[in-house]
Design goal:
Blueprint (H helix, E strand, L loop, with lengths): L2 H12 L3 H13 L6 H12 L6 H9 L6 H13 L3 H13 L8 H12 L2 H13 L6 H13 L3 H10 L5 H13 L3 H10 L5 H13 L3 H13 L6 H14 L2 H14 L6 H13 L3 H10 L5 H13 L3 H13 L6 H14 L2 H13 L7 H13 L3 H9 L9 H17 L3 H14 L4 H12 L3 H13 L8 E6 L2 E6 L8 H17 L2
Antiparallel strand pairs: 1-2
C-alpha cells in the first residue's frame, strides 16, 4: 500500500461529520485514488449512517462509480436499508442481477430483511429461490435471515423448515427461531426450542424472556430472568426493558427498584432513552409518579415514546390535568404526537372528567396532525362520554366507528362495552339493551350479560334479570373467575377465585378467619 493511499484511508477513518468526509474525498481524488474500491466503500458506509451521514450524497457518489463491485453494491444496499428506503435496496439488488454480478452472503441478508420490512411475501420467496440458485442453501447467515423473514410474515412453518435445514446453527439461529414462535403466540414451542438450544448466550435468553413478556406471561418472564441470573450471565439492555415491562404489568415495584439498583451496580452509564423510558413506565404503573417524573425531567433527550410513557403514567394515576399540561409542553417543544399519545391524552381527559377538552383534542388530532381515529381512540372517547352521562353523543361516536372487518370484532366490542357500562351506571335500560344486543353478536363473554342483569336487578325488573341469566346459561356463557395478584418480598403471588392451588392457602384462610373474628368482635 502506497503512502498516499494509507494517508487517505487514515483520514477517512477519522471522519466524524460530512464536512470532514468531503475533505477526505477531495484528498482521495487529488492523490489519484478516487477509484479505489475499498476507499469508495468506506465513503458510502459513512454516508449510510443515519446519525451523521448523508444518504443523498452517498447515492450521488454511487451513481458516478463505473462498474461498481459487489462490495460497493452491498454497501449501497445496506445504506438504503438502514435509512428505511427498502424499495431502493431491492432496486439495487435487481441491478446487480441485471449486470451479471454475483450476490454474496452479505448481499442476500440485507435484501431478505428489506423484503421482511416491506411485508412482501412474493419478493421474499423470490429472494429465497435466488439464494438456493446461487448455492447458499447451507449458509448460516442467509439461513438466519430467511428464518427472520418468514417469522415476520407470520409463516413459522416455513421458518422452521429453514431452521431444520441449516447444518451448522449459531446462537443467532436459535434466537431468531425462539423469537419467531413467540411472535406467533406459540410460547410453548418457543420454550421447547429454547430448552433444546445447546448454546444459550444473552441473545437466546433475551428471546425467551421477551417472548413471555410479549405474550403477557409476565410471571414466566420473571422466572426465566432468575434462571438466567443463576447461570451467572449478565442481562443486556433488551432484557432489562422486558423485565421492567413485566414488573410494570404485575405491579412488582420491589423487583423494579432492585433492577434500578442492579443497573447502577453494573456501571453501564449512561442509560439509553429506551431504558429510561422503561423505568418511567414501570414506576408510573406501580404508582410512584414522583420518581417517574424525576427520571423524565432528568432525561438529556426524549423521544415520542418517552413523552407517551409520562403522559400515560400521569393519566392512569388520576393526574389528568398535569397530563394535559405535559401534552401542551410536548407540542411547544416541537415533538409530533402519534396515535398512542392521543390514547394517553384521552385517558387523561377521562380521569379529569374533561369531556369537551377530549372532543377538542380529537378534532386537533384529525385536522392538525392528520391522524385518523382508531378503534382504541373511539373506545377511550366512548368511555369518557358515557361516564360523563353524554350517552347520546357516545352512541353517535360508536356508530361512526369503521366496520369491524377492518380491525376485528373484539376491538369493536371494547367501545360497545364502554357504552353499556355507562348506560348501566346512569340507569338507561333501553340504550343498555341495544348495546348489549350488539355485544352478544360480537363476543362470547359474560361481561355484557352480567352488567345487563345487574341493571335490571337494581331497577327492580327481576323477571328480566332472570331472563338474561337464563339466556347466559342456554348460550353456554360462563362467568370468568376473578383474579388478583400481590407482591411480597419480591415474589408475585396470584389468586384465582374458586381455586385452592396456592401453597399457603391454609395460612391465608387462617388470617382471613382472624380478621373476620376481629370485625365481629368490634361489631
Amino acid at each position: 500500500m502506497s503512502r498516499g493511499r494509507r494517508r487517505c484511508l487514515f483520514l477517512l477513518e477519522k471522519c466524524r461529520h460530512m464536512k470532514q468526509l468531503k475533505t477526505a474525498h477531495a484528498q482521495l481524488l487529488t492523490s489519484g485514488h478516487g477509484s479505489d474500491t475499498f476507499a469508495l466503500s468506506r465513503l458510502l458506509a459513512f454516508c449510510s449512517n443515519p446519525l451523521h451521514g448523508n444518504l443523498s450524497h452517498g447515492w450521488n457518489l454511487f451513481r458516478r462509480i463505473q462498474n461498481p463491485t459487489i462490495c460497493i453494491c452491498n454497501t449501497m444496499i445496506k445504506a438504503f436499508f438502514l435509512n428505511g428506503h427498502l424499495t431502493n435496496a431491492i432496486h439495487i439488488y435487481s441491478q446487480i442481477l441485471e449486470t451479471g454480478l454475483h450476490p454474496d452472503n452479505y448481499t442476500l441478508p440485507y435484501v431478505l430483511k428489506a423484503c421482511a420490512g416491506l411485508q412482501s411475501f412474493r419478493l421474499g420467496e423470490l429472494g429465497h429461490g435466488q439464494s438456493l440458485k446461487l448455492g447458499f442453501w447451507f449458509d448460516v447467515f442467509v439461513g438466519n435471515s430467511l428464518i427472520s423473514m418468514y417469522s415476520s410474515f407470520g409463516n413459522v412453518r416455513a421458518a422452521r423448515c429453514v431452521f431444520d435445514e441449516i447444518p451448522f446453527r449459531t446462537a443467532v439461529s436459535w434466537t431468531v427461531m425462539v423469537s419467531g414462535y413467540a411472535k406467533s403466540g406459540d410460547v410453548e414451542t418457543a420454550r421447547m426450542i429454547f430448552d433444546e438450544s445447546p448454546m444459550k448466550d444473552v441473545g437466546v435468553w433475551g428471546s425467551i424472556i421477551s417472548g413471555y413478556v410479549q405474550n403477557n406471561c409476565f410471571k414466566e418472564g420473571l422466572v426465566m430472568f432468575r434462571l438466567m441470573q443463576s447461570t451467572g450471565m449478565e442481562p443486556d439492555e433488551g432484557i432489562f426493558v422486558s423485565i421492567l415491562c413485566a414488573c410494570a404489568n404485575l405491579g412488582a415495584m420491589e423487583i423494579g427498584i432492585w433492577l434500578h439498583k442492579y443497573w447502577n451496580q453494573l456501571g453501564r452509564h449512561p442509560m439509553s432513552v429506551r431504558l429510561i423510558t422503561g423505568f418511567i413506565d414501570m414506576y408510573a404503573k406501580c404508582g410512584c409518579l414522583d420518581i417517574a417524573k424525576k427520571l423524565f425531567d432528568e432525561m438529556p433527550q426524549r423521544d415520542i415514546v418517552s413523552w407517551n410513557a409520562m403522559i400515560s403514567g400521569m393519566a392512569m394515576n388520576g393526574d389528568g390535568e398535569n397530563a394535559i399540561r405535559l401534552f401542551s409542553e410536548m407540542e411547544k417543544d416541537g415533538v409530533w404526537p402519534d396515535d398512542i399519545t392521543f390514547i394517553a391524552i384521552f385517558t387523561a381527559c377521562n380521569h379529569s372528567g374533561n369531556s369537551y377538552e377530549a372532543l377538542r383534542l380529537l378534532d386537533r388530532m384529525c385536522r392538525v396532525y392528520n391522524i385518523g381515529p382508531k378503534i382504541e381512540h373511539y373506545g377511550c372517547l366512548v368511555d369518557l362520554l358515557s361516564r360523563a352521562g353524554l350517552l347520546k353523543e357516545a352512541k353517535e361516536l360508536v356508530l361512526r366507528m369503521p366496520d369491524s372487518s377492518s380491525h376485528g370484532r373484539s376491538e369493536e366490542a371494547i367501545a360497545w362495552r364502554a357504552l353499556l357500562s355507562g348506560c348501566c351506571s346512569h340507569g338507561q335500560a333501553e340504550m343498555a339493551e341495544d348495546a348489549a344486543e350488539r355485544l352478544f353478536l360480537l363476543e362470547h363473554h359474560s361481561g355484557a350479560y352480567v352488567l345487563l342483569s345487574n341493571l335490571y336487578a337494581v331497577a327492580g325488573k327481576h323477571d328480566d334479570a332472570r331472563r338474561i341469566r337464563k339466556m347466559m346459561e342456554q348460550r353456554g356463557v360462563g362467568k370468568a373467575p376473578g383474579c388478583s395478584s400481590v407482591e411480597i418480598d419480591g415474589v408475585v403471588h396470584e389468586f384465582v377465585a374458586g381455586e385452592e392451588r396456592h401453597l399457603q392457602m391454609e395460612e391465608v384462610h387462617g388470617v382471613l378467619r382472624k380478621i373476620n373474628q376481629q370485625m365481629d368482635d368490634f361489631g
